[in-house]
Structures are given as C-alpha cells and as structure tokens.
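B., you asked whether I could sanity-check this one before it goes into the benchmark set. Here's the sequence:
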Amino acid sequence: MCSQEIYMSKTVNKLYKHNATIYKVILFLITAFAIVYLFPKGGQFKYEFTKGKPWQYDNLYAPFDFAIDKTEEEITEEIKTIELTTKLYFQFNKETVNEVKEAYQLRTSFFQANDSLTSSDIEIITLLGNSIIEAVYDRGFIEATSQGIVSDINNIIALKIDNQVQDVIYNSLLYSKDVFELIKRSLGEQPYNYSQNINLTILSEVIKPNVSYDNEFTQKVIDEALNTISLTRGKVSFGELIILKGDIVEGKNMAILHSLKGQSESKLWTNANYYWIVLGYAILVSLALLMLLLFLNKYRKEIFDNNTKVTFIFFNVSFMILIQTLVIKYNSDYLYVVPLSILPIILKAFFDARLGLFTHVLTVLLLGFIVPDSFEFIYLHIIAGIVTILTISELHKRANLFVSIGQITIIYMITYLAFSIIKEGNASQINWEYLMMFGANGVLSFLSLFFIYAYEKIFGLVSDVTLLELSNTNTKLLKELNEKAPGTFQHSMQVANLAEAAANEIGANSMLVRTGALYHDIGKILNPMYFIENQSTGVNPHNDLSPTDSAKIITDHVIKGIELAKQHRLPDRIIDFIRTHHGTSLVYYFYVKEKELSPVEEVDIKKFQYGGPIPFSKETAILMMCDAAEAASKSLQQPSAQSIDDLINKIVEKQKLDNQFINSDITFSEIEKIKKVIKRKLMNIYHVRVEYPD
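And here's what the prediction gave me:
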C-alpha cells in the first residue's frame, strides 16, 4: 500500500471517528445560516425608547435631514375624512328621457275620438302627459339600487349630464313614490275621470329612472384624492435638537423619534453595509446557538451525544423563528398570535423543564432583534415561558393542559395590560384587540399535542402521552405476556410498582421507568416454561439441559425481547430497558453448576454472561436494581425485615462492584434512597413488621 493510500485511509478513519462532531458543526452552520436568512433585511436603530418613559441617552441631535412621518392614526383619519367629504357622482341618462317621451307618444297616437274621448280630450291628455314627463326629468328619477347611498339626504352630490357636472342636492332627486305622487297631483283632483285614469296608467308604465350612482367614477375621484395624501408632516434639519436627556418620550418628540428610527434603519441597510450587518446578525445568532450546545454538553450530555435529539431541538428553534418572522413580514399587527409557548411545552414533553426554558429564552432573545418593542416582546414571552414550565405537567391528562394554557393566556393578558397602562398613563387607551390575539394564541397552543404526536413519528422520541398508552396492560404485547407467561407478567407488574416509587423518590422519570419495567421481560414470551416464575407444574425443563444451554436460553430472553419489541414498533427508549436490565451480569446459578460438572476444565465465563450494555441512565439503573431485588425476594423462605434488608444490600452492592452503574449518572446518595424504597415496598408486599427492641 502506497503512502497516499495510507494517508487517505487515516483521513477517512479520523472523519469516521469524529462523524458526530462533524454532524453537529454542519447542523450548527445550517441552522445559523437559516435563521440569519429568515431575519428581515433591515438595520437596527441604536436607541431604545418607550412612550411615557424618560429618554435615557444623551441629548439627541438630528444626524441628517429627514421628514417627520405621520402616524398610522393620522393617515387613517385623513383617509376617513376624504371618504366622507368627497362628493358622490351620479349619472344623468338623457337617452332614458328620450325613450320615455317616444314611448308616451306612441301610446297616445293610438287614441281616437269617440263618445268617451273627444279630440279636445286627446290633445289635453298629450299636453299634460308631456308636461309631467318634463317635470319628472327636470329633477331626475333615481333608480332603486342607487337609493340610500348618501347618508344625509341634504348632502350635495355631483350629477353628470353628458360631459358636464353640476352640483345638486340629493334630496331634489325623485324616488318611485315621489314620481307617483307628482303624477297624481298633476292630473288634478280625485276621483279621476276616464281620460285622467288613462293618462295615469300610461305615465306609470312608461316613466322609468334615469339617474344612477356611478361607483366607478366616484372611486376614481376618491383614489386620486387619497394619492395626494402626504405621509409626512414637517421636516427636521441636520443638527436640530430632537430630545433632551431625561425628557419624557411622548407627543411630537415620539413621532420624530419613530421617523428617525425608520429612516435610520433604511439608510443602514445599503449595499455598502449589507455584509457588515449580516455578519453582525450571524455572530449574535451563532453565540445563542453555541450557548445552547454548551448547555447540552455540560448539563444534558446524553442529549448532546444523540445527534437526532440535537437536530430535533435546533429544528424546533428554527421553526418557531420561521413562523414569527413570516408574521412580522406580512402583518406585524398579529405579532402575539404566534404561540411561542409551544416550544417549551414540546421540549418539556420529550426532555425536561430546564432544557425547555433555556431553549425558549434563547429563541425569544433571537426574535428580540427583529420585533417591534423588543423589550415588551421579550418580557412577555419569557414570563409566559416560565409559567408554561411551572404549570404544564402530565400532558396525557387533557384537563391539565386546558388549565395550564388558560393560565398562560391570562398571564399574557395581565402583562400586556400592565405595559399598556405604563405607556398611556391610564387604562382608557388599551387596545382590546390584543387581548383577542392572546386568546387566539392560547387556542393555537393546543397544536402542541399535534406536534408532539408528529415528532414522535418523525424523530422516534417518546412523550408521556405515548408512555401512558404503552403502559396500558390491555396492549397487544402485554396481553400476550399475561396469557403465555403469567408469572413473568406478575413479576413485571411488581417491578413496575417498585421502579415507579424509586423514580419518584430521586426525581427520575417515573412514567418512563414504569413503562420500561412492564416490557423488560417480554422476551420470555417465546420460552416461558424455562423461567421459574412460570413453572406452575413443578416440572423444570432445565433438568434435561446442560448448564451452558440453560444459560443460553436465559440470556437470550434479552435478545429475543429486543427483536419482539422492534416487531411491535416499541420506541427505542423502551427497548433500552430491555437491553440493559441485566447489564453484563452473570447467570450465576448455571455458571456454578457448570464449574461443578467440569472442575478440571476452565469455564468460559462469557457463555454465562449477559451481553449488555450496562445501564446508561438513572431510569435503566433503577430497573436493574428493582428487577433483581423483586426476583431474589421470591427465594426468601421466611421474609423478615432483616432478611429483606440484607438481601437488597447484597444485591445492590454486587451490582456496584460489577460496575453496572458507572454509565448511568446516578449518585451513591440516590442509590441509597432507591434501596430504602425497595426495602419498604417489599416489606409491605410480604406483610413484614419491623421488629422494635424491647
């Protein structure tokens, strides 16, 4: 092999050896890049100020000429004024008038003189009818769909006649009932004669509206007026004093500061400054993510060493920042609708409260770079995050989640109200829409249950909800264990109770260890009669086997249990209990028996030893102790407080001497507490009374 090949081989080996570290570096860089990319492209104003608070900095002078922007309220008010004061335009249709006159003339042309209607009557009818038509259209007859457009009937409107526009009072236009009344008045006193009735009928049929609302033209006029609205009012010149140190930020100087902030940020984000600002963002984001990695490395080593879990945490941070930045980009008014409390809920469900809060705080700090009123935003969400961690517990109980999210929502509202009162000086200016947003925030927080379920499937993690489902003894696998190996099932139940109590004593995950205990011996389903707890008939099949074969069957229940667990798609965290519950311990009985049968030959101890691994968490260590203690307690002929005490001490000390707990991050103090719990529980099971001295 040439030197180049050797060098390449060593390089590949080094890369493979440090693949976990390389992965974390790549993940770190990708996450940092994604977050910086998501941030809105704008510079940061170097001063922080709040309405109603004193100016904390030195006297501020204008660094350049800039216009004073109008507030949104001022612009909205101007828009309303234009919309209210702009004349409404109506179309006067002359063609309609001509059509009506022609239709009337046609109808009256069929009149012939007879006994009921003389030539003089026909002439009078025609003249009167034309005069009525002229009277109607001199004022204008408005169509029904255009009625009620004007709020005040005494308002002046613009009437478009051909290419001319004339102002008229809206009230001068005729409605249908007005036209009918005019016709009746013009025809004379009632009761009408034959000729009057004929004229009334014809006029009522031929006269139709000729005035309609011109919405398109009116809107065009309004739009033109809106385009003339100035977005600024006044100007500040370079070097002009804006605010003195200690002055209260309010009124005019607040408007000037907001204008300066907006224009400063836009001036900062130029082509020349682009890369510098991106570099600044990148450094700040990288520092936050680095703090998260350092926290994991120092306090959550088992998570840090698991790249899947690190990826999961980074993904959730990025996802929450993505959602929040999208809201800021498209409509910052809905800033507080985004349920950031989902992040600590999810992390607490899969890991622990401390990690959840730490990650939440870092995420909120990152978002503080880009949100308006950053201090208010950070304070609100950090307080909400703390409340989330303090209140959210036992997610599998739906009532708990409802109560907790309700409490979080109330804290949001109270905190916002306090900020509003501080800013405005009273409660009259509170924006009640924000309270509705916090309500929506609370409702959206229930999406955490969906995310927890999805993440379990995607990342292979386990939450309390899943553990609760798995711990149900009616699950398919546990029912099979109960049917085929009832003794083992009862043993598992006893171990689960012991382990749960021990976990509660030292603050470990009691639900996890209980569920792991229920499944730790499922490998015995395949050969139940080879395990003493299932030998109800007194027949022991090991009598027909060599010690080596017996030990193989006994130790294989771990491997078979793992295979069975994977077939039934049990989570890896549960399978860990199956793997480790015997660690690398010895099947001592058959080992001694083999030595007796072969006193001369050296016995291969590995054939009588479980394959491991040894426990690597507090929970798996607890199971090992409880499993061995419960099984050994069955061998006591006459259980007493002393015999149980001696037995547990012997078992646990043997496990410690065999270095079964060196990877489990469990202290001697915690082991002693676990021993006490096991002793107390076993004494209760066997109804043993503590003997007091005389």
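One thing to flag: The beta strands are 60-61, 66-69, 89-92, 156-161, 164-169, 211-213, 232-236, 241-243. Otherwise nothing jumped out at me.
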